[in-house]
Design a protein that fits this description.
Layout: E1 3-4, H1 11-14, E2 19-20, E3 24-29, H2 35-50, E4 54-58, H3 63-69, H4 77-82, E5 86-90, E6 98-99, E7 102-103, H5 106-119, E8 123-127, H6 139-153, E9 159-165, H7 179-182, E10 185-194, E11 197-207, E12 216-222, E13 226-229, H8 234-240, E14 247-248, H9 252-255, E15 262-263, E16 267-272, H10 278-291, E17 296-300, H11 305-313, H12 320-325, E18 328-332, H13 340-354, E19 358-362, H14 365-368, H15 373-390, E20 393-399, E21 420-424
Parallel strand pairs: 3-9, 3-10, 4-5, 4-8, 8-9, 16-20, 16-21, 17-18, 17-19, 19-20
Antiparallel strand pairs: 1-2, 6-7, 10-11, 11-12, 12-13, 14-15
């Protein structure tokens, strides 16, 4: 069965290629879950990435305000409208069209059909659908009206996304409890509060007649990319990537122990108590990459860039010169200021822009304190899968709680995704 690529990063992998082509997808969620961003990104990506014009039907928020609010993402919706790539139908003032207990969709349907023909649209967005039926008395009336909506849109041959409000992240999927039965597909966005932090997830509940991945997947609303689902096709990326046969240096003291180093696409987990030398090993890994002519990205969650440059100089390493030359990039972040999904997208962007051969993360323990176990595990799996798909070698440090043994490195949540584990310990 044909799929339509949405252009929303990570989403198409959940539907094995995209949304069912020519079908209607109902997108539900609470206030602030990202429904409108999703819908407009679907339209903008259609034009910008695939040359597919679209039609936007706005039923609640005036079109100019809706487009202006999306300006921060850089999609230039206003330019696409002016260029005739997206047609807008502003139906926020419907006058007497909505009558309690009945609704005549023919007028709006005719406007949609005309707009689709005018721009040659392949995509259609209706935002939000449920405001049409706020004055209806019974769910059966809503269901009957929705069937009429679906029948009027089917001959247009467009792939449609309709948004709808739900009262809470658990409970009924929609306001009336009828919308999800009429639509071909149902996608649910959640913005749940977990341990004083909001966590956005996306779930494909049904694709009628189509396969899709089951369960909830975290996503972020990024100021550059818009909505991005993470982890993004982790398993496929790892399986499709060609295993690197060459080895790289961990630093001269360890290379002999590892048969000449580790494989190019390895994720190396370094564990140990405070002061055992994990940061020093990360610095040696960084220096070995610089000596080999590689670019290195160093992500620090506990020290500033200036502290790192100062500290490694006491070990006889110069990080200032390669940083000025553009061969070394040191990024220092405070993990408390963002969620792990947002951080994963930011790291991905840094790697895409800088194109390093190696990445050092010091330390993951700082992130562990700021997330639920499941969230941290998802972050680790997504990060390692991305590094492997890009063929980037990564060294990640974590801190064990005890100074003298008694704790296994395999107890660390990331141990199952690591290719090599280096345990550093004190001995009395």
């Amino acid at each position: 069965m044909e799929r339509l690529e949405t252009g929303i990063p990570g989403l198409d992998a959940l539907g094995f290629g995209g949304l069912p082509k020519g079908r209607t997808t109902l997108l539900t969620g609470t206030t602030g879950s990202g429904k409108t961003v999703f819908a407009l990104q679907f339209l903008a990506s259609g034009v910008n990435s695939f040359g597919q014009p679209g039609v936007l039907v706005t039923l609640e928020e005036p079109a100019e305000e809706l487009i202006a609010n999306m300006g921060s993402f850089g999609w230039d919706l206003a330019g696409l409208v002016e260029g005739g790539k997206i047609a807008v139908i502003d139906a926020t003032d419907r006058g007497e069209e909505v009558v309690r207990g009945s609704f005549d969709f023919s007028g709006l349907s005719a406007r949609i059909a005309h707009a689709v023909e005018q721009v040659g649209a392949k995509r259609l967005v209706v935002d939000p659908l449920d405001v049409l039926f706020l004055d209806f008395g019974e769910a059966s009336e809503v269901r009957k009206a929705l069937h009429g909506v679906a029948r009027s849109l089917r001959p247009l041959g467009v792939t449609t996304v309709m948004t709808a409000e739900r009262a809470a992240d658990d409970g009924p999927y929609t306001r009336f409890g009828a919308e999800e039965f009429v639509a071909d597909n149902l996608v649910v966005l959640r913005n749940s509060l977990e341990e004083e932090r909001r966590r956005r997830t996306l779930e494909v509940v049904k694709f009628r007649g189509y396969q899709h991945r089951k369960g909830e997947f975290p996503f972020v609303i990024d100021h550059v990319t818009g909505i991005e689902v993470v982890p993004f096709s982790v398993i496929e990326g790892v399986r499709e990537a060609v295993a690197a046969p060459d080895r790289i240096s961990l630093g001269p003291p360890l290379d002999d122990l590892c048969g000449g180093g580790v494989y190019r696409d390895s994720v190396v987990l370094v564990t140990g108590a405070t002061g055992t030398g994990k940061t020093l090993l990360g610095a040696q890994f960084t220096q070995a990459g610089l000596d080999a002519g590689e670019r290195v990205l160093l992500l620090s969650f506990e020290e500033s860039a200036s502290q790192i440059v100062r500290n490694v100089s006491s070990w006889g390493m110069d990080f200032e010169a390669p940083a000025l030359e553009g061969r070394l990039r040191i990024v220092s972040r405070y993990p408390e200021r963002m969620g792990l999904q947002d951080l994963l997208v930011e790291i991905k962007r840094e790697v895409d822009e800088f194109a390093p051969g190696r990445v050092v993360i010091d330390s993951m323990t700082a992130l562990m304190h700021n997330a639920a176990p499941r969230e941290f595990r998802e972050f680790g799996v997504g990060l390692s899968g991305y590094f492997k798909s890009r063929g980037v070698a990564a060294l990640v440090t974590t801190t064990l709680l005890t100074l003298l043994g008694g704790e296994s490195a395999t107890g660390v949540a990331l141990s199952t995704v690591a290719d090599a584990i280096v345990a550093m310990r004190y001995l009395e």
